[in-house]
Amino acid sequence: MKKIINQTDDIVIQMGKGMALAHPDKIEFEEKYKIFKRKTINPKKVALISGGGSGHEPAHAGYVGTGMLDAAVAGDVFASPSSVQVYHAIKQVTGEAGCLLIVKNYSGDCMNFDTAAEMAEEDDLKVLSVYVNDDVAVKDSLYTIGRRGVAGTVLVEKIAGAAAERGDSLENVQLLAQKTIEQVKSIGVALTSCTVPAKGTPTFDLGSDEIEFGVGIHGEPGIERRKSMTSHALAVEMLDLLIGELGLTDEDEIVVMVNGLGGTPLQELYVFNHDVRAILSSKNIHVYDTLVGNYMTAIDMAGLSLTVLKLTDELKALYDAPADTIAYHK
Amino acid sequence: MKKIINQTDDIVIQMGKGMALAHPDKIEFEEKYKIFKRKTINPKKVALISGGGSGHEPAHAGYVGTGMLDAAVAGDVFASPSSVQVYHAIKQVTGEAGCLLIVKNYSGDCMNFDTAAEMAEEDDLKVLSVYVNDDVAVKDSLYTIGRRGVAGTVLVEKIAGAAAERGDSLENVQLLAQKTIEQVKSIGVALTSCTVPAKGTPTFDLGSDEIEFGVGIHGEPGIERRKSMTSHALAVEMLDLLIGELGLTDEDEIVVMVNGLGGTPLQELYVFNHDVRAILSSKNIHVYDTLVGNYMTAIDMAGLSLTVLKLTDELKALYDAPADTIAYHK
Amino acid sequence: MSTLSKAELFQMLNHMAEVIIENEVPFCELDAVAGDGDFGMSIAKGFKVLMAQWETLNRESIGEFLADCSMVISENCGGASGPIWGAGFKGASKATTGLQSLTKAEFASMLESAAELIQKRGKANRGDKTLLDALLPCVDALNAHKSDENSFKMFLQTGAMAATEGAEATKKMIASRGRASYVGERSLEFPDAGAMALSIIFTAISGQVLD
Amino acid sequence: MSTLSKAELFQMLNHMAEVIIENEVPFCELDAVAGDGDFGMSIAKGFKVLMAQWETLNRESIGEFLADCSMVISENCGGASGPIWGAGFKGASKATTGLQSLTKAEFASMLESAAELIQKRGKANRGDKTLLDALLPCVDALNAHKSDENSFKMFLQTGAMAATEGAEATKKMIASRGRASYVGERSLEFPDAGAMALSIIFTAISGQVLD
Ligand SMILES: Nc1ncnc2c1ncn2[C@@H]1O[C@H](COP(=O)(O)OP(=O)(O)O)[C@@H](O)[C@H]1O
Ligand SMILES: Nc1ncnc2c1ncn2[C@@H]1O[C@H](COP(=O)(O)OP(=O)(O)O)[C@@H](O)[C@H]1O
Ligand SMILES: [Mg+2]
Ligand SMILES: [Mg+2]
Ligand SMILES: [Mg+2]
Ligand SMILES: [Mg+2]
């Protein structure tokens, strides 16, 4: 493993401090519970908290700021923060309007965020949660814990953030976040594994002509291992899955996010976006806005994910609202 | 080689189109001469053009927009655009106020941009040039063509862009760009090679515990091959070089740019920034602003570069001016 | 020996922490096959903090000690392991409040209570390919043998064998809880990381108990 | 044969383009050692366009044809190669305006004029470790032998040998022009990519000329 780091134990704290030093106008970093939060908290509005394991930078600290999150709680690399950490984040940013937790649907995250919510409720704080499960690589079955939350989470944070900033009630912010979750789907593909610093070796091995189709943002296996494909062929398959899941027709308007997984050159993301657009335009599906970049990464994995959000008028108005964070401007 | 691309021949055109499709409000892409330009050109202000080989995304197309460039000309991956391409870019965006070419100091780029300037002058356009040479890895000797231009170019574009937007004369914009060039220094380090798509194999090989200290943004060799180092040790050496070159003392105020070379996780950039700040603060050098991210990449290379710009009051005012481009907001 | 003293139990827990810390990398590797490869790291992290705070834990009774352990583990183990192992220790503490030593029966019900709280917290059932598939057979075996005349060591080794068999059997299961559940049938043929860890831990600590 | 007809020269240039295109990858590899590894790609790209536009080039005279080649190459070869090879073809065309065939002396001065414009454009000198270190010795050899009684083929082969020796000698030079100049002494022991290419091209085309 070659990485530009010091001791692996301290990586999240050093990163957090390095981030706060780079963006002193946007965020504060509290080392003890690894909480990133806005410089000034507005206690009148619904507070929005997300977080999860580290290694997905810029998520979620990069989305703390006006129009998006109030706080992001960081676990170790790929490991949910503890309930105690999340509890302290809730305590620090929640006012009378209450707090919404935006949780990516992993068993560890769900258990920790849920326990934290229970603890905060014991302190008479109003806490609701939503669970993002946009990854269509995973079968949605009664017998599993459901689908994983991946890059679509950023769009949920954007839209719920706009609702909270507008002054919506906690219940309404939750409802809008939930509506967004229902309209957002993602699928990823890996060209290489990621390497968790503490482990020091790649999580999985891929042959020099293989890709992992449907990979998760922690390097979890996906739908299947495949031979390498062209950008266009990948775009066809990935869009097919998403269009099918969302039931898109030529009436629909969507937001497209082409998300790099950390080790992918921007060059490839734009080439892929070109293919995505050619296919969408052949189907007369209208693209309202496009995001291309590293929004939700898997450390140093080469590969990308494609996210589609189907807009309704209600969601569009919120999508258009301003946002000013480290990694997302509007 | 595994990459998300189609034919390697077409990669720049597909990328360019993919980029314009993603940012229709910010840029236009002209396929014939591979020119990215602003949607509306203000003929009264000095036009700013940069460009060079592709593979450094988001440079330079990502810096086209208010407060920065008017056009960026793209060559093939790591190959200067032709003089004819640059000439057409000049023709398309230059008005009565003239045009400044911001050229990274490589023999190919210099020859092509110079020839283009000569061609445009034959059409009675006013064209001046500056050559960015911020890479301190290269010895500056009378016997070579001088130092390479790397990530510092982005800051030159920022400051010259602000001067042009303010309405400065061509001569003055050139002078300010030149002053910036004199105050900006960079040094890079590679953990892995990049892979040029058309070639299909890595440009160089590094052992599993080796780094290339002083690497160029095309994978050119640097100062020397070394054993891997911690982030902190790297920061010490890189800063020593830059501080020495700029003659920084504890009176000085600087802008720091921690630039990922394309395959580096953001995690590492922030850890590195943390080390950079610890060292700077021990030397009482004041950091006015910090940029952390992928600003000038070498396709998929893992590694980073560190750039320091020494501010004067004159440069600071321009640095503070707004900018609104795909990859840089202020 | 037919009871385990408080000191012996603390010694056993200390050894358990050592085993977990030593196995950080192998435990990660077990999780890498169908999960996300961080299990060893997540769990070792909490037990390292536990070791560091060892001398400060409340030693009034076994239950009190385990309750303190549960707090440290919940707060410091990452991922799913924090809530799961935290719940386990909390369950264990509930069954041992005030106790200064454990009979075989008390030991068995301590683990049974641990398994109950893990089930409550994680909502997993037998066969879901989690550490419960090692823990529940272990509890069953201990309950079946809690009145045997054997040594405490043999009693624990019976539990360890059952845990090992249970862990082995997870190879034939398709995960439906935890990260491995996302890969469906691709988790077949590989054991669950948490179940394997439990079998390794139990085997190690039962081996060290004096006859 | 003591002159080269227009058709023979066009045939030779066509073959040159083929050699360049065939060697795209090896030329990149030569450039990767101390440069940026794109030389083969940069140069092949222009010559591919040249081949595609082959039938549309102005065939009135050798000079006119070479001038057209120069335009295509300047516009379509990437990197330093566009200006350098464009200048070379422009120089060659200047020395051959209106000519329908070339004597050995005319061939030699065509290459001499090519070298001059390359020097003017790129400001490199002998010993700077560029393609000039293959081209200038080649021109010298051709000038020295332009009055020999040998065949045109032998004449060209003399030039090719000089180019090859010159390219070989670049191993001992430290680059001071082009991207390899940034690495200073680390360019030692490796030949210059452009010089090697010139030697390969010249050797190949001289081998194909009829006796
Ligand atoms: N809901 C659950 N109930 C019981 N055990 C679980 C549950 N989810 C996961 N586990 C156990 O936790 C182990 C994985 O732990 P860890 O890697 O720390 O969590 P994560 O899945 O968050 O990365 C699995 O191998 C499994 O034994
Ligand atoms: N100033 C120059 N004069 C003559 N030849 C040059 C000059 N600079 C570079 N070259 C030649 O060009 C070759 C490299 O071409 P290429 O790889 O296309 O350019 P770049 O250096 O821009 O990547 C070198 O090997 C050298 O022979
Ligand atoms: Mg995990
Ligand atoms: Mg080049
Ligand atoms: Mg795990
Ligand atoms: Mg080159």
Short description:
Helices cover 33% and strands 24% of the residues of chain A. Chain A has 330 residues and is an alpha/beta fold. In chain A, the strands form three sheets. A six-stranded mixed sheet of chain A has the order 1-2-5-3-6-7, sandwiched between helices.
Key words describing this protein structure:
heterotetramer; A: 330 residues; alpha/beta; six-stranded mixed beta sheet; 33% helix; globular; C: 211 residues; mainly alpha; two-stranded antiparallel sheet; 9 helices; 2 strands; binds adenosine-5'-diphosphate; binds magnesium ion
Describe this structure as you would to a colleague.
The complex is a heterotetramer, with 2 copies of chain A (about 325 residues) and 2 copies of chain C (about 210 residues). Chain A contains 8 helices and 14 strands. Chain A is an alpha/beta fold and about 325 residues long. In chain A, helix 7 links the parallel strand 11 and strand 12 (about 285-295). With about 210 residues, chain C is an all-alpha fold. Chain C has 9 helices and 2 strands. The mean pLDDT of chain C is about 90. Chain C has helices at about 5-20, 25-30, 40-50, 60-75, 80-95, 105-120, 130-145, 150-170, 195-210, and strands at about 5, 100-105. Classes of the chains: A alpha/beta (about 325), C mainly alpha (about 210). The interface of A and C includes residues 84, 138, 198 and 216 of A. One adenosine-5'-diphosphate sits at the interface of chains C and A. Chains A, B: This is Dihydroxyacetone kinase. Chains A, B: It comes from Fusibacter tunisiensis. Chains A, B: Its EC number is 2.7.1.29.
